[in-house]
Design goal:
- Strand 2 and strand 3 form a beta hairpin.
- Strands 1-2-3 form a three-stranded antiparallel sheet, with helices on one face.
- The protein starts with 14 loop residues before the first strand and ends with a helix.
- By secondary structure, it is of the alpha+beta class.
- It is elongated and about 65 Å long.
- Helix 1 crosses helix 2.
- Helices cover 48% and strands 21% of the residues.
- It has two helices and three strands; from the N terminus they run E-E-E-H-H.
- The longest helix is centred in the last third of the chain and has 22 residues.
Amino acid sequence: MTPRSTNTTSPSRTCLMSLNGFGIRPHAGGRSGREAWHSIRRRHPRLAMLCAPYGAVLFTAAVIALT
């Protein structure tokens, strides 16, 4: 049995979704915006699908508040 090598030079992979009253802001692997959406949809498709209803609720709440 060979021991595992601990490679500390590889970059960490993170996915961050900021959900607030102003919208949804994705960050993934050091990227943001459209590139982060593509990466998040590939890695976590359920999370990406849950953001669509959240965005619809935010939009509806904004329309109701402005009328």
